[in-house]
Amino acid sequence: MARIWVRWNGASWEGEEVFMSDQLVAISFTNKGGFRFLLGAVYGHNDRRRRETLWQDIIRLSSLAMHRHLPLLIMGDFNAMLYSGEKLGGRSIPDQILSDFQSCLLQSGLRDLERVGHIWTWHNKAMVSRVACQLDRALGNSDWFRLFPSSVAEGLPAGTSDHSPILVRFVESPRWRARPFRYDNSWFLSAGYEETVAGGLCQEAVGTAQFCMVHRLKKTKRAIRDWVRALPRTSLQEKEAELRDLQSDLQDDMMSGEMAAREKKLAAEVNTLRLQQEISAAQWAKCSWLKDGDRCTRFFYDVIRARQHRNRIQRLIGRDGRLVTDQVAIQEEAVRFYSELYHQTDYPSVFPQLTTKTLITEYGNSLLMAPIRMAEVEAIVMQADASKSPGPDGFSSGFYKRHWGILKVQVLAAVQEFFDTGKLLKELNHTFLTLVPKKEGANSLADFRPIACCNYLYKIITHLMCRRMEDAMQGLVSRNQAAFIKGRSIAEHSLLAHELIREFHKPGGMKACVKLDLRKAYDTVNRDFLCHLMGAMGFSETWVDRVRECITSPTFSVLIQGIPYGFFGSSRGLRQGDPLSPYLFTLVMEYFTCLMDIAVHRERIVPIYSRVSPVVSHLIYADDLLVLLRPSMRGIRELAAVMEEFGQLSGLRLNRDKSKVYFSNSCTLKEERALELGVEKGDLPVKYLGVPLSVNYAKDRECQSLVDFAQRRVEGWQAAGLSFGGRIELVRSVISAIALFWLQSIMVPLATIRKIEGICAKFIWHGGIHAISWEQLCRPRKEGGVGLRSLVSVREAAGIKLAWRFLQGDSLWSAWMTSRYLRGRNFWVCEIDNNFSVSFKHILRNRPVLRTAIRRKMREGGETDLWLDPWISGQSLLEILGPQRDGVAYRGLTCRHIISGGVWRPEEYRFTAQLGEEIRQVQITPTALSDVWVWAPPGRSEGAGEFRFTSCYDLVRPHFDDIEEYDFVWGKGLARKMQLSAYKLVLGRLLTRDRLLRFGVPVPDPKCVLCETENEFIGHLFFQCHVAWSIWAEQSRRHLGGVGRERDFREILKWIGDCRGQEQSWARCARLRLAASVWHVWKERNRRIYEGLSTTPVGILQNIESDVLVMSP
């Protein structure tokens, strides 16, 4: 009996069988209009081994579709899952099952269609021990998504079956409507641009500084639009074809100076068009991590399409609970929802006298309102990301950076006017709300995050306000908060949460942890309360008025499919996307700390703490709240009362559906206590700030979400558009993201690290043969790698950083750890105790490496232990002199005892002359400040004592000898693709036919495809094959003054280096041409093998000349 049936309407479609197996049936469909696509119907086996055939069949089918440039849709029951989160209940999914499916998609370049409706497509229909999975799905290739960007896979009701049917739907595109103006960063490369912009910005205007600025921007916008319409529509493809034709003609008249000049001019035009295309695509793709790859324009466009598809709102659940799919109705629903969301109804306008812990000083207020300096404003503009989305006026930060010479005086006048008058031009504060889905398949407006796109001139003002508030925030905001406060770390906040939860497994009474979620946090802030609170904190009335103007004057339009709809004001909330909002929200949350501190002080809430540790009743990071307390009924009621009072005043209400309470095992009546609080009871581990929070250290299974994060970043058809260099840069960004947070927040198991490194390595090599090992790739370029970082070494470096941060002692986490574990003992000699937490043991084990990278900056010497701290060239006096010293009691003594008048007096303790001289070499900086440790790794001088993760990583990574061919491989001006082909050549890792045979890959013919006479290996292909040699020899004769007899690239490099009489530019040109020849020969070899196409040696030379013209200075 057949396992798979495919039926279609024969009147409209003609179907032709392409492939058939017991798990996959592929049909090529063509309609009456000639449109053609491939459909794959899947029914995967339950057995993992038998599914291996399915994965190979899918890879082959996707390869066929790619070579024929056909859209491909594969759908059905795969009987496998991609991520651990695609299963609810039952046993966890084995890693190998996930890896098989992930590898298949990585090699095939397929990606999920957006899933809507019933996403849990299978369940066991059991009353108990219920299990649900996402087994059924639809996948598409890049050609599919280019043609059908709005297609979705809708899961239908299962009925009596245990599987939900999958219906692929095509959502109609909305009716065309002109999109708002958006400045393109690539325009400056086109003729006439500078004059057009200068003409608009220099227009005469009469009125306030803000009005004049906005007026000139409007004039400039109109001028740019007219200029863009008048630009000649010359495509890159047309120019490239024109250049190829000219180079063919040049072969018949190589001595023509006129044709040579025209060739150079055309090459420059082609390069300009390529650069324009790349700059524009990169701007809208917003891939800031891809700074050192090839021109990945196709990838950028795929990213843009994917983001447009992800953010496209195709269906909504309306206020009456009915599904809305009509675009006009969706627009009306969105405008209504957000106009109501930002409208204040029952908030109090009269507030009680607020008591805050600290007040801003008069000096602090004077700094806030100090005169605006041009340097301040210029620093803000120059440090901005030019790819950020513009506001309603369409001008991004890239425009301001490009034309700062003209704009700076006007901008400074507009900014200063706001600070002088406290008034904002209404038009300046208009805002577009772009809706970003919080989850896949979002169909309710509550599932979207409204991100405010503000005009950049307004953002300059608020960025300036933020910079001035930074210093004031340090003293105003308690150490319980870590977000947006300079010097405070989300990683340390997460570590402290782990330490506090670790207390749950210890005896000593009942304990509870409450994870509180605030409903629409930013959007519901009571603005009147915020301003009242700032006044209570001591902010001057003038500054509060400036803040009030910023948050109360905006008007809004909602972007649906990139087009603005509606126009409405607001009476509550802070805009997500306004630089000022995070700082103001932090001040609002500080009032929660005040209420909690009062409750703790009056013993209505009893926090979890030991006798010696600081009291930590709660932790706050932005809108993530964690409360830790003894869960007596009185304490639970008091916490509920605190949240109620805080919500009434601030507008921030508890989202009880997403809040949970977690109890220690010793706690009784858990359900009753949770009911009293009004939230659900949860079970540990739980995610907090993105990482697992558990009583014990994180296990491999608890870190599966980190593995999924890495997999999602590198999978799918978008990444398939990346070159080898682009894939390396994407992996670099994945490692950087992991290093920035995860590895500094928890002890990630080595097993998890190895999985992620495997995912990255597999992605770099497209799931095929790993021509170069991961360990080799992770070396610095000078040592034979590509400069990636080994996650194992990053993990070690993160441990060193953790120890360094602990040593600074300036955070709540370090204070808690010091009092909890050291208890008066010296950090440098404290022995590791079994009762210490995993993170503190990790800190202590990193002391030997840490002490080699730091030195003591001596001031008065009162905080430096004379005998135990390593303040003399990384050693302590106890280590230098030994544990015994007759007549000297070394406990409790500090370096102050041998300093007098800012000068060392080692003779006080009768040290040897040599030791006394070493002590005098330690510099003293007389000041009232405390002694500090400064970062000073061996061989590094940058940073003036500030910690640098790069130098920390360099301390722990393996080191290797430099390679001789570094200048050839990574030479200045060489295209990235050529650098990497030269890199593989130097290592001997290009997958020529002899190496493929060595890896067990069947090769139809081992002969070289260029000369078809000798067997192919690296040495032959590039320099011994007469076709390849003729290409290099011809270049040498034309441009290098002759050719040597060398037939090996290392000998050729030696010949280049031995030509000492030549200028340096000659050697650079020679290396550039050699690398270009290698890349083009390799490209030609692959075209002949995989595409059945060939180019003559003359054509290859022309292509080399084109590239060299582009790369040459």
UniProtKB/TrEMBL annotation:
Any one Gene Ontology molecular-function term assigned to this protein's record: catalytic activity
Q: Where is the Reverse transcriptase domain?
A: 417-693
Q: Which InterPro entries match?
A: DNA/RNA_pol_sf, Endo/exonu/phosph_ase_sf, Endo/exonuclease/phosphatase, RT_dom, RVT-Znf
Q: Which CDD domains match?
A: RT_nLTR_like
Task: Tell me the Pfam families matching this sequence.
Answer: Exo_endo_phos, RVT_1, zf-RVT
Q: What is this protein identified as?
A: Reverse transcriptase domain-containing protein
* Native source organism of the sequence: Iris pallida (Sweet iris)
